[in-house]
What does this fold into?
Amino acid sequence: MQNGKNSDTATLLRFLPSVDALLQTAAARKILAETGAKHLANLARNVVETLRREILETNEKPNEFSRETLVQKAEDFLSDIWRIEKNTRLQRVINATGVIIHTNLGRAPLSEKAIKAISEVSGYCTLEYDLETGKRGRRGIGAENLLAEITGAEDALIVNNCAAACVLVLSALAQGGEAIISRGELVEIGGDFRIPDVMTESGAILREVGATNRTKISDYEKAINENTRMIIKVHPSNYRIIGFTESPTVAEIAELAHRKEILFYEDAGSGALPDLSEYGLADEPVISQRVAAGADVVTFSGDKLLGAVQAGLIVGRREVIETLRKHPLYRALRANKLIYAALEATLESFRKETALTEIPVLQMLSRSDKEIEQRTKDFAKKLSGKIDKNTNLEFSITKGNSVIGGGSAPAVQPESTLLALKHKKMPVNELERTLRLSKPPIITRILEDKVLIDLRTISESEEAELLEILAKLK
Ligand SMILES: *Cc1c(COP(=O)(O)O)cnc(C)c1O
It folds into this structure.
């Protein structure tokens, strides 16, 4: 028996193509231009090594394999590992999930103007150069001035993301002192960003006040002592306490802080530049209102409801912002030219009051269900006309909801009309996977035995691509 196995193994090993032979196959030649010869040789070595190990470790019989099938197996394996490697690269996807600010899919899609601005400054640009004087200029000045103007703040500062903004504010303004926060706001935002941990890391001593559902202005007042530096208010973002709740208004907290000569800092998270309550987002702090109500410093994200790139936006009183700008940590957290360019273009849209038509996040948010219903019906009609008569794909139109996402307004789910897909030969997970691995990838969600497509998060040009892919499904 043992002998038999040894000779089977020997036969199989003889059938195994050499690395050189594998490099000559059609599969290898097809990917050569993408990988380059050196990386392709590494991949081929990896394939041959893995197959050799498999042969030595398992009991496969040579009669189940010929020389040809083993070469084919090696070719398929090579194509697979190259595909898997390539799929770890960043690539464009069609977001059919209906989640507008989808953190895993890159949060906010940029406006046309922001994309153009990024491309224009990608070479040399005036990052720290003043054209008027021909001397060194202040980095970020354009975007920061726009931000201050739009929010009514005295000054603004931009860093890499809102988490960095929180770290900078706490380190520069509360280190070694106490920072007071309501128990109801000691939240985890997602991606392991926990407010209490950030405070500890920043060297601020956390003073929790009130109860999870109720904090009164007197709770804050009682906690203030000579070591208190600030009161912090954190927008709970992805989390809501409903029912028997109470918290003082921003104006009340600001009044208390200023009477006691300490700072009032609000982390608004997503925040809204114009008031978005018309679209169900009444709970999102409107930044200009927070500034007007007396917050000394407010932080929020660049790629949530603002609809631009990952960035941490800080607005507030002039001397507070100046302290942050001079802090050594700022150097480590400062933004790059592409971020400023995208923010400048996006903020221009807000200043001109054209944001609702120019910024994709706000466009998607403000689409009425009627509009989406019509688009979905039109799409279904086009699909019926284009699809093969013998297709196994079945589709219907159903009511459902989109999601804001990105930790913004968890309770708000705009009504939407969805295209529901089923396939006669593929189980629902396989249909989802097929769409996910198409070019471009289409990211969907599954509900029960159907794959759902929400056109709210799909642009007109992507609609045409989606139609092609669905019509070609066998
Ligand atoms: C999202 C969020 C953050 C983190 O913002 P990033 O830009 O992702 O770093 C911080 N605080 C609050 C309240 C948030 O909602």
About this structure: The two ends are 47 Å apart (CA to CA). Residues 161-163, 189, 193, 234-235, 237, 267, 269-270, 301, 312, 407 surround pyridoxal-5'-phosphate (CB under 6 Å). The mean pLDDT is 93.
